[in-house]
Amino acid sequence: MSARPRGASLRQAQWQPHVLALNAPPGYARWLTEDGSLTARLKAHSDSFRVQCLHQRTAICLSDEAAAIGMHRPGRVWEREVLLRCDNTPAVFAHTVLPMAASAADWPLFSALGERSLGSTLFGDPLVRRGVLEFARLREGHPLARRARAALGASAPDEHILYARRCLYQRRQGTLLVTEVFLPAVLELIKTSIKPR
Fold this sequence. Notes:
The protein is of the alpha+beta class. The protein has helices at about 5-10, 25-30, 40-45, 120-125, 145-150, 185-190, and strands at about 50-60, 75-85, 90-100, 130, 135-140, 160-170, 175-180.
């Protein structure tokens, strides 16, 4: 049994280099391992795609994000959180952080994204280098699981575990960490909205 307090364990995610470590249901695993632009895939699986920006502001990064973005301890970052909606149903909760030291030259479009997709910007920029994907099971006590449920309100899922992935992006001297939390609605996209190629 772990000596770490239960509250602390619920607030931390154990990020894994391979999706098999999550033992995720196959429907989630297919979304978690998508190698291209998630935005492009969501658009291909729905008639109407929209980015709902929840906020974009300065904040303190999560304790399991600090090392990933080169910080010795949690500190102030730029934070952006959005819901990715397919046919008006939230399918993904996305959380992005970048260090305050990042310059406009590093990420010139970040401050003006508004309701535009960050993914489209990242995959369309030849200067952006994408890192490797990491995967985690987020328990109810994890901050991102709580925020995703709060954003969904009355339609929050009953599941105690949410599946997530994250990836570090680099552009010039700047780093940016994107975490995507997959909501149960993505499973319905696979079943009902796959368009013929």
